[in-house]
Design goal:
Strand content: 15-25%
Strand order of the largest sheet: 11-6-1-2-3-12
Oligomer: single chain
Number of strands: 20
Radius of gyration: 24 Å
Distance between the termini: 14 Å
Number of helices: 17
Structural class: alpha/beta
């Protein structure tokens, strides 16, 4: 980490709103916006031009038309045509209804792989303490990652920044991109930022959406807009029902339902997915032309992006017929994969705040993970049974954490096993060479050696045998996992 990584100034006020709704709004927004732009040809030219000037990154319509037909190398349309990965950062902020309007309490990486026609949505924990690099001589400031957008936007509150984070129109989004890039290793092709109001207004502009609940949802701790709770709570019946914008926001945001199925992260994610699908279907319906003015009004004042019209059109065309099964979701959050990337909650050094502290200041394992989000379908096609064996000296939980992190990537994993400490990492192939691609992938990811067990090359005592692959994690991986490898 940079030696100029400094203690933060007093924390910006925390948002009283929960982040889940903004996540859904961010997912939904791109679809609704693309539909509005593509279907808006019948609208008055000045109305569309004004919308594009204030939302999408459109200044030269003739240049946009050329990008659609013959995109420049490296642009989003070009990458989608040539099978290159596209990364977009989705940001959710509270907006004017919030006491800390620019904090991005939701940050999500949307990664598209045209070669395999797959998409991964990966959330970033908002409380992760990171170096924010926005000042001259690349002096960094230790802050929660959700403050990066605010630092870029608020010139008065965060003075002395470099020009690109002071005068530039997209400075908040660009600083967020840079900050997330530093911990994931990804290079972003653009960003989209949306607030609560835009999400509500989009749903209302579409005439509401439908959702089906497996159980009732009763939440008596749902936050209001006055730093308190909604009197009497919120209540939704079991079954299918139509909801308006505010109700959709409540369903997406609710975190404290009485019903265990609705209070869990899985239940909330499922509701968000249903809302997304419902909005996509409604936006794609035949009567959307009559709703375009309302969609434009909903997005014009509560939306920030550096994506251009050619980018949006290319994304729409590429994803129009993408099935839900092609979308994978990874939650690097306090309740999901935080432990897998060896983070802990508390204080970091002199940082006396409730934050997530990365034990590896280089974020090496996280970068490796994001680099491998899209496992070659031929590897997954082998459906190799894999067991993770923890042979580290002092990290008892490492095997469980690593196994959980591999599951969202599509691997078939058995219950992890712990054995006596081992110095080096190996991939033991009990299959007789039946899964060569998976063995090679595991060896590359874990910096391990593939070994076929024989009497001459026995495995350590306690290592399980079987018909698949056994990934034994040794001390060499554990020290790399916490950033102590040379």
């Amino acid at each position: 980490m940079d030696s100029s990584f400094q203690n933060p100034r007093p924390r910006a006020r925390r948002s009283q709103q929960r982040p889940a709704a903004v996540l859904t709004g961010a997912r939904v927004l791109g679809v609704a916006l693309i539909v509005a732009l593509v279907a808006g040809g019948a609208l008055a030219t000045l109305r569309v031009a004004d919308f594009l000037r204030t939302t999408a990154n459109v200044r030269n319509p003739f240049g946009t038309a050329r990008q659609v037909l013959e995109p420049d190398p490296g642009t989003i349309p070009w990458k989608l045509r040539h099978g290159e990965r596209v990364n977009i950062l989705l940001l959710g902020y509270g907006g004017v209804e919030n006491d800390a309007p620019w904090l991005t309490d939701t940050m999500m990486v949307l990664s598209l792989d045209p070669s395999s026609r797959r998409v991964v949505e990966a959330s970033i924990p908002r409380d992760l303490l990171v170096p924010v690099d926005a000042w001259p001589r690349h002096q960094t400031l230790a802050q929660k990652i959700n403050v990066a957008y605010e630092i870029g936007i608020d010139d008065a509150g965060w003075p002395g920044k470099r020009p690109e984070f002071t005068a530039a129109r997209n400075r908040g989004g660009r600083l967020s991109e840079q900050t997330v890039s530093a911990i994931t290793g990804l290079q972003f092709d653009g960003y989209v930022a949306v607030d609560f109001k835009a999400f509500r207004d989009v749903v209302n502009a579409l005439g509401g959406v439908d959702i089906c609940l497996d159980t009732a949802l009763d939440d008596r701790q749902y936050p209001d807009y006055k730093e308190g709770y909604v009197k009497g709570g919120i209540h939704f019946a079991k079954g299918c029902q139509a909801v308006n914008g505010e109700q959709a926001l409540e369903l997406a945001r609710s975190r404290h339902a009485v019903q265990p199925e609705q209070a869990s992260d899985f239940g909330r994610a499922r509701r968000q997915q249903q809302l997304l699908n419902s909005i996509r279907k409604r936006a794609a319906s035949g009567h959307v032309l009559t709703q375009v003015p309302g969609l434009m009004n909903a997005l014009q004042k509560n939306f920030d992006s550096d994506l251009g019209l050619a980018d949006l059109q290319a994304l729409h065309e590429w994803s129009a017929k993408l099935p839900d099964s092609a979308i994978a979701r990874v939650g690097v959050t306090s309740s999901d994969l935080v432990d897998e990337f060896y983070m802990r909650r508390g204080s970091c050094g002199d940082i006396h705040a409730d934050v997530l502290c990365a034990q590896d200041p280089s974020f090496g394992v996280m970068k490796a993970y994001f680099a491998n989000l899209f496992v070659d379908p031929r590897v997954l096609g082998e459906a190799a049974p894999v067991v993770v064996v923890n042979g580290s000296r002092n990290l008892e939980e490492m095997g469980d954490r690593v196994a959980r992190s591999l599951q969202p990537l599509g691997f078939k994993l058995a219950e992890p096993v712990r054995v006596r400490p081992q110095e080096h990492s190996y991939v033991y192939d009990y299959s007789g060479g039946r899964y060569p691609l998976t063995a090679a992938w595991m060896a590359g990811y874990f910096h391990a050696t593939v070994v076929t067990p024989t009497p001459a090359t026995p495995v350590p005592a306690g290592t399980p045998a079987g018909e698949g692959l056994v990934v034994q994690l040794g001390r060499d991986y554990s020290v790399r996992w916490i950033g102590q490898a040379g």
